[in-house]
Design brief:
about 400 residues; alpha/beta; Aspartate Aminotransferase, domain 2; Aspartate Aminotransferase, domain 1; 2 domains; seven-stranded mixed beta sheet; five-stranded mixed beta sheet; about 40% helix
Length: about 400
């Protein structure tokens, strides 16, 4: 007796939560439950003709792990299903993903427009690295989409934004900027690390490429480096794949396996961390030693309406300024007993950092001031600890300030 095929056998009909567990899985002849780690640099061909067919692209099999690998492919497919992308490519780190995504879209003589509020490494790529190869760039205040429109030129090929921004949690209107970019036939790349694919979907809002540092929430436990680029089949399989294949910022199969394990609990972790962050934000908003709270999910955020429109929740990062400047910020951070001092984020453990002296230390005081990164600013990545414990820890730290 024949049986109708279960509709849920089609991965695209499964919910995002189910995709995080099962998406992209390919089992070997052994039928393993957990995804296999294919720690192989090369692959065997049946004969010379088969090798020729693979190199011509006529046979979709694997050639070399710098180009593609079964474990990395599982991670790519799972992320594409969760993000709603046609294709994806894993990279060795988040910065490898950003650099590859940008470099793949431009040539000497092109122009890039980017929001000025960027992670330090991302701003280096836009402001210092691309111009070395004949690609000029313009940085704008990303809070107003019209600034992007005014900066566009006939040779603008790429627009790059991150939202929420690192570390000031400014927002950029993805839909509005996408419309501006597309009028000029430019590609919009969005760094979605802070929002995560749980709370924000840039491709649905008009972005062409989305990049992540998988090191952050996707791993979520401080174990491995990784990055990923997602978008249309044409963009990913074209110049993005070529750059990875020829220059080698490839993801390790072992790291891809770690990321696959991280994806299984991504929504559970991010949802709880976001609940904790909201409680922490409420506490900090009313504390007498806090000069300013910045959290997209809090009504005090100047772009709260935009946050409600393009994000499903405020996510896991909270920034705040301590009254008294750097000295008092250091005193508060140094007195913490649970929250760790580190420059990572998205971890199960809560982490605090002082951006002006760490991630954004290479910038001048003028650039930091323009970006809103004061000496009083602390960036807090809220983890999975008990929210009341985190609030008590912060209360003690602020008392010492």
């Amino acid at each position: 007796m024949s049986r109708d095929r279960n509709p849920l056998s089609d991965p695209k009909r499964r919910s995002a939560q189910t995709q995080l567990i099962h998406g992209g899985t390919e089992r070997s002849q052994h039928g393993e439950t957990s995804e296999a780690i294919f720690m192989s640099s090369g692959f065997i061909y049946e004969d010379s003709g088969a090798a020729e067919a693979r190199f011509k692209g006529e046979d979709p099999g694997y050639i070399y792990s710098r180009f593609s690998n079964p474990t990395v492919e599982m991670f790519q497919q799972r992320m594409a299903l969760v993000e709603g992308a046609e294709a994806a490519r894993g990279t060795a780190s988040g910065m490898a993903a950003v650099t590859t995504a940008l470099m793949a879209q431009v040539r000497a003589g092109d122009h890039v427009v980017a929001s000025r509020a960027l992670f330090g490494g991302c701003r280096f790529v836009v402001e210092d690295y691309l111009p070395r190869w004949g690609v000029e760039s313009t940085l704008v205040d990303g809070r107003d989409p019209e600034n992007f429109a005014r900066a566009m030129k006939p040779n603008t090929k790429l627009v790059f934004i991150e939202t929420p921004t690192n570390p000031t949690l400014e927002l950029v209107d993805i839909k509005a900027v996408a419309e501006i970019a597309h009028v000029h036939d430019a590609v919009l790349v969005v760094d979605n690390v802070f929002a995560t694919p749980i709370w924000q979907k840039p491709l649905e809002l008009g972005a062409d490429l989305v990049v992540y540092s998988a090191t952050k929430h996707i791993d979520g436990q401080g174990r491995a480096l990784g990055g990923i680029i997602l978008g249309s089949e044409d963009l990913i399989s074209g110049d993005v794949h070529t750059i990875i294949r020829q220059t080698g910022p490839s993801m390790s199969p072992f790291n891809a396996w770690v990321m696959l394990k991280g994806l299984e609990t991504l929504s559970l972790r991010v949802e709880q961390m976001t609940r904790n962050a909201a409680k922490v934000a409420d506490f900090l908003a009313d504390h007498p030693k806090v000069e300013r709270l910045i959290y997209p999910g809090h009504a005090s955020h100047p772009q709260y309406e935009l946050a409600q429109r393009q994000m499903k929740a405020g996510s896991t990062l909270v920034s705040f300024e301590v009254k008294g400047g750097q000295e008092k910020s250091f005193a508060a951070a140094d007195a913490l007993g649970i929250i760790l001092t580190s420059n990572n984020l998205g971890d199960a453990k809560s982490i605090i950092s002082h951006p002006a002296t760490t991630t954004h230390a290479r910038f001048t005081d003028e650039v930091r001031e323009e970006a809103g990164i004061s000496r009083a600013l602390l960036r807090l990545s809220v983890g999975l600890e008990d929210a009341d414990d985190l609030i008590a820890d912060l209360a003690y730290g602020l008392d010492q300030a």
